[in-house]
Amino acid sequence: MQDAADSNSPAPRFKPVPWQGLDNAAEAELWIAEHNLSLQEHIGPNESGYGVRFTLAEGGDIYLQTTQDGALILDVTAEAEWIAPLIMAVARVEAPPGSMWVLPDDVLVQLLIGLSSLIATTTLVVGHNFSRRRRLGR
Fold first, then answer.
1. Are 80 and 62 in contact (CB under 8 A)?
2. How much is the pLDDT for 126?
3. CA 116, 120, 125: angle at the middle one, nearest 5?
4. Would you say 83 and 115 are in contact if contact means Cβ atoms under 8 Å apart?
5. Is residue 126 within 8 Å of 52, Cβ to Cβ?
6. In terms of Cα–Cα distance, which of 13, 15, 131, 17 is closest to 75?
7. Is the pLDDT assigned to residue 63 strictly greater than 50?
8. N or C: which end of the chain has fewer CB within 10 A?
9. Is residue 1 part of a domain?
10. Residue 48 belongs to what domain range?
11. Could you tell me if residue 56 is inside a domain?
12. Smallest Cα–Cα separation from 122: which of 71, 56, 76?
């Protein structure tokens, strides 16, 4: 039985979308273009913290945001820390001290292909804390 607070909560703005695996760079680039279009259509000009949440089939989430200055910001939840070796191999970087990874944008296609068989769903997100202070461990 739901309590009164649950029944008064607004429905989530974005719903998870089942993942369709990506087999090659062309499919990854098409996925990127489609999600960029979705973000442009659904995110207001005054909203921040927007990106995509990848829910992994084996547990955990990865939040992805691209920045104006050509970086990828990944926020890897504690439940998804097991994915760190894959991210390190694809991006050729060491793991950061916290949950925030800053990667060059030229690894996005390879990252999507590497993660593809591990993703269960994707969800657009708004208001996620992709803050610089948190990335730098302050």
1. yes
2. 85
3. 95
4. yes
5. no
6. 131
7. yes
8. N
9. no
10. 14-135
11. yes
12. 56
Do 63 and 51 contact (CB within 8 A), yes or no? yes
**Domain for residue 96, yes or no?**
yes
Which amino acid appears at position 16 of this protein?
P
Q: What value does the mean pLDDT of the chain take?
A: 85
Between 127 and 96, residue with greater pLDDT: 96
Residues found in the chain: 138
Q: Give the amino acid at 129.
A: N
In order, the DSSP letters of 5-65 are HHHHSPPPSS--EE-----SHHHHHHHHHHHHHHHHHHS-TT--S-EEEEEETTS-EEEEE
Tell me how many domains the chain contains: 1
Does 20 fall in a domain? yes
Q: How far apart are CA 124 and CA 93, in angstroms?
A: 26
What is the pLDDT at residue 133? 43
